[in-house]
Write a structure and sequence with these properties.
Elements lengths: L2 H31 L2 H30 L5 H29 L6 H20 L8 H29 L5 H29 L9 H43 L9 H18 L2 E9 L2 H28 L3 E5 L4 E9 L2 H12 L6 E3 L2 E3 L3 E8 L6 H17 L6 E3 L9 H12 L6 E10 L4 E13 L3 E3 L1 H10 L3 H23 L4 E5 L2 H4 L4 H12 L6 E6 H6 L1 H14 L2 E7 L6 H6 L4 E4 L1 H7 L3 H16 L3 E4 L5 H9 L4 E2 L10 H10 L8
Parallel strand pairs: 6-7, 9-11, 11-12, 12-13, 13-14, 14-15, 15-16
Antiparallel strand pairs: 1-3, 1-6, 2-3, 4-5, 8-9, 8-16, 9-10
Helix pairs in contact: 1-2, 1-7, 2-3, 3-4, 3-5, 5-6, 6-7, 14-16, 14-23, 16-18, 20-21
Bound molecules: ligand C2E and calcium ion (2 copies).
């Protein structure tokens, strides 16, 4: 055998071994990754190596038989060409699968591959035994195949290069391998064609083609490794990311939870520190969320939380962020402030989000929230300290019974102590220890100073001695969820006491009882009141319930329905602390109440200067225009009484007339004033 022939055979064998190795590599990948395109490419390289081995054998036979055609050589050529075209079919199929997720039917796949293989076999058979067919045979078996192979590889390479998914790097390596491999085949085709158009070509290059092929194989193999490793890494990273998000996100509101809040706060502190900025840490507690849950149900409560979360996080905006840190507690950070004042102002702006009522299934719910704020760097340098101080400020708000109130941490605020815990324990037991008492403050008709009613006001004789004003314990009772119990106790106690008075002084006398928002929004309120009235014997028209604008507006529909229900019983409703709320006139007009009680803060300010006087005038004319009766409370001086009289207010309450009294003292007063006479 000539030396050139041995060289050719060696190089073809090397090429076949290269293809076999590549097929083995793909088989390994296909088994571990189970991608469909990897299987297709495994078949492609497997068939390609079969084809190369067959053509090496065919070539050897050519050299052995000095080119004479034989049946066995034709069969081997048919195997070589059939598997070569089938390999091409799998190659393009794999490319298609790598770039799209679409499932192709199995039958179609085999039809495609089988068609390609049959085509290859046919090209092997044409002119197989024609002694003069050498040129045609070469053209069909080598030229045509190179042309098709080159085209398929270049097209696959271009498609892979342009594919849109992530992880382009490895895929592009594979694409380059395909392109190089394809270009080599097209180049070979060109060399075949040149003699046909009469140009002499230097065919010695063909000897090296197989070497270049091996380089292309290596690139494809390496590219595949990079591709899969990239994919694996991306998948792992994505999985880790998902896990992290899942464990640090509140599933209901999609806000970060407490853990992520602390992380982010730490980052924000670092940033503020390096920029010399201030930041506000706000703890936000929804007021009376329990009532919302009770009146609207869990789904309603959830909807409110979701909406509140969205509003807070939108308001925290680009310069901060929000998190859900408890059932009805949120936290927010306002960053980027130049000084403390700016930081507090930013926190203040967050409160605006509760101004607009919440719309829930055609209902309007007014939600309030209390804010505790701490400022970096003034109040602390680390997340724990800042969060702790913000929570102390929030506790302070709750202690003061503040609704919709914001407090900024100050050093004189103290953290809850053992005393506070005792206090709470005592408060829980106050009712059963008979430590709660009621005083009654008369309401007088200014014209003849006759007592026309009395407001029940609660006191707590803690340990039986120390007398505590409601402002000092009701807020805490509210926070502890004791308010309904207390209000119902007051209601039944006061109606029982007043029933005796009403027996002798019923005409024109009314008992006023304060109701907290929680009690007022209670779904069973009407039934409770009806029962209490029946038990005490107090006529319904002698009872008036005082609620704040706040509690009536809390959930307008429940509010309106409850007022209607009380009205049906014959019980009147009075809006207490009138003028201090911020409800719209439109809403007020909708509430079927009898009376308003102008808040004592207005009365106190009325005579201080003209502007305050004008404000009282405006509050009064608002009530008058709504056709409501008016009482003024907190009247301490004669001048105030004259001023209120001038405004047309007929009934007053205050120290000027009487302080809150024991029931016995009030009874004596009532007995003294004689039978009721209407004013002329
Ligand atoms: P309020 O409903 O505005 O009650 C009027 C408050 O003004 C009472 O304070 C009364 O003692 C006080 N007051 C009366 N006249 C004058 C005056 O001339 N000058 C001044 N400066 N104050 C006057 P009190 O008894 O400390 O009650 C405070 C608040 O606690 C009440 O404000 C009411 O909101 C609440 N409260 C009192 N008793 C009850 C109760 O039984 N149930 C509920 N839910 N709340 C109650
Ligand atoms: Ca009152
Ligand atoms: Ca008041």
């Amino acid at each position: 055998m000539p030396e050139a022939a041995v060289f050719s055979l060696n190089i073809m064998t090397a090429q076949a071994v290269g293809a076999l190795l590549l097929a083995a590599l793909f088989l390994y990948f296909a088994r571990s990754y189970q991608h469909r395109y990897l299987w297709s490419w495994t078949y492609a390289w497997g068939l390609q190596s079969v084809s190369l081995i067959a053509s090496t054998v065919a070539m050897w036979m050519v050299f052995q038989s000095h080119g004479a055609p034989s049946l066995s050589r034709t069969v081997i050529s048919a195997i070589s060409l059939g598997s070569s075209y089938a390999a091409l079919a799998f190659l393009i199929l794999g490319t298609y699968q790598a770039l799209s997720d679409e499932e192709r039917s199995l039958r179609l796949t085999w039809a495609f591959v089988g068609g390609a293989a049959a085509f290859g076999v046919v090209t092997a058979l044409i002119a197989a035994h024609d002694p003069d067919g050498m040129a045609i045979r070469l053209m069909l078996r080598l030229g045509l195949r190179s042309a098709i192979q080159g085209t398929v590889l270049v097209v696959s390479g271009v498609l892979l290069w342009r594919g849109q998914d992530e992880g382009r790097r490895g895929r592009r390596f594979v694409a380059i391998g395909f392109l190089v491999y394809g270009a080599l085949h097209l180049h070979a085709t060109l060399l075949f064609l040149l003699p046909w158009v009469g140009i002499d070509a230097d065919l010695s290059y063909a000897n090296y083609q197989a070497l270049f092929d091996l380089i292309a194989y290596t690139m494809i193999g390496l590219g595949m490794v990079i591709w899969l490793l990239d994919q694996e890494r991306r998948r792992r990273r994505a999985a880790r990311g998902e896990l992290r998000v899942a464990t640090t996100t509140d599933p209901l509101t999609s806000l970060p939870n407490r853990a992520r809040f602390n992380d982010s706060l730490l980052r924000e502190i670092d940033r503020a520190n390096s920029r010399g900025e201030h930041l506000a840490v706000c703890l936000i507690d929804l007021d009376r969320f329990r009532v919302i849950n009770e009146t609207l149900g869990r789904a309603g409560g959830d909807a409110v939380l979701i909406e509140a979360a969205a509003r807070i996080s939108a308001a925290a905006g680009d310069h901060g962020f929000a998190a859900r840190v408890g059932d009805d507690e949120f936290a927010a950070i306002c960053a980027g402030a130049g000084d403390v004042h700016e930081a507090v102002a930013a926190a203040e702006r967050l409160r605006e989000v509760f101004r607009e009522p919440f719309r829930l299934w055609e209902r309007e719910v007014i939600l309030h929230a209390s804010f505790g704020v701490a400022v970096f760097p003034n109040d602390g340098h680390d997340p724990d300290t800042l969060a702790h101080k913000a929570s102390i400020a929030l506790t302070q708000v709750r202690k003061r019974g503040g609704e919709s109130m914001m407090m900024v941490y100050a050093d004189d605020m103290v953290a809850p102590t053992a005393d506070d815990l005792d206090f709470e324990q005592d408060l829980r037991r106050a009712a059963e220890r008979n430590e709660l008492v009621l005083l009654y403050q008369p309401i007088v008709r200014l014209a003849d100073r006759r007592i026309v009613g009395a407001e029940a006001l609660i006191r707590w004789k803690r340990h039986g001695t120390e007398i505590m004003r409601p402002d000092h314990f009701l807020p805490r009772a509210e926070a502890l969820g004791l308010m309904e119990e207390i209000d119902l106790w007051v209601l039944s106690q006061a109606t029982r006491t007043a029933a005796e008075w009403a027996a002798s002084h019923s005409e024109g006398f009314r008992l006023c009882v304060n109701l907290s928002a929680t009690t007022f929004q209670h779904p069973q309120l009407i039934a409770h009141v009806e029962q209490v009235l029946k038990r005490s014997g107090l006529p319904p028209r002698a009872l008036e319930l005082e609620i704040t604008e706040h509690s009536a507006m809390h959930d307008l529909d429940t509010g309106r329905a409850n007022i209607d229900g009380l009205r049906d019983l014959g019980v009147a409703v009075c809006i207490d602390d009138f003028g201090t709320g911020y409800s719209s006139i439109g809403h007020l007009r909708d509430l079927p109440v009898e009376r308003v009680k102008v808040d004592r803060s207005f009365v106190a300010r009325a005579l201080r200067d003209e502007r305050d006087g004008a404000v009282v005038g405006a509050v009064v004319s608002l009530a008058t225009s709504l056709d409501l009766a008016i009482v003024a409370e907190g009247v301490e001086g004669e001048e105030q009484a004259v001023f209120l009289d001038d405004l047309g207010i007929e009934e007053l309450q205050g120290y000027l007339f009487h302080r809150p009294l024991n029931p016995d003292d009030l009874l004596s007063l009532l007995e003294m004033q004689g039978p009721y006479q209407p004013l002329q």
